[in-house]
Design goal:
The protein is of the alpha/beta class and 138 residues long. The chain contains six helices and seven strands; from the N terminus they run H-E-E-H-E-E-H-E-H-E-E-H-H. The longest helix has 11 residues. The radius of gyration is 15 Å and the shape is elongated. The chain starts with a helix and ends in a 5-residue tail after the last helix.
Length: 138
């Protein structure tokens, strides 16, 4: 039986508002040991990663306490339904050169699948899988 994204996704993604600050996203990531939060604005979703916070805020000398997430997030999401297969996620990641895909059910985000999640499923002995499985360091 083929593995679906529902089986490997990180469930219940943190969702912040577009007007929330970069600092609030960084705190949510730190408190939850994650590197991604979703950003909601008027029923649409974007995504922001820890890397985005560094490149689009800190590196540009913007104030994390006042910069809204809507200014630094990626508005065009890569999404798949939760009943899609891992092969579908691998292909989408390759085609779009992304490391994370938002998983949806009935057009609502229910999870996130990362490159590391796929590595843990496909090749549990790989270095990427081992790193992804390790607990977050604070």
């Amino acid at each position: 039986m083929r593995t679906t994204l529902r089986d490997v996704m990180t469930r219940n993604p943190i969702i912040l508002r577009a007007r929330d600050t970069v600092r609030s996203a960084a705190l949510a990531m730190s408190e939850n040991g994650i590197g991604t939060v979703l950003v909601e604005e008027n029923g649409s979703f974007g995504i922001v990663t820890d890397r985005d916070l560094v490149l689009r805020c800190v590196a540009e000398d913007r104030d994390p306490a006042s910069t809204p997430l809507g200014d630094v997030c990626t508005h065009e999401l890569c999404m798949l339904e939760s009943d899609a297969f891992i092969d579908d996620a691998v292909e989408l990641m390759r085609a779009r050169s992304v490391r994370r895909i938002v998983i949806v059910e009935e057009a609502q985000p229910v999870g996130v699948v990362s490159l590391g999640d796929l590595a843990m499923d496909r090749d549990p002995g790989s270095a990427l899988a081992a790193i992804s499985a390790a607990p977050a360091q604070h």
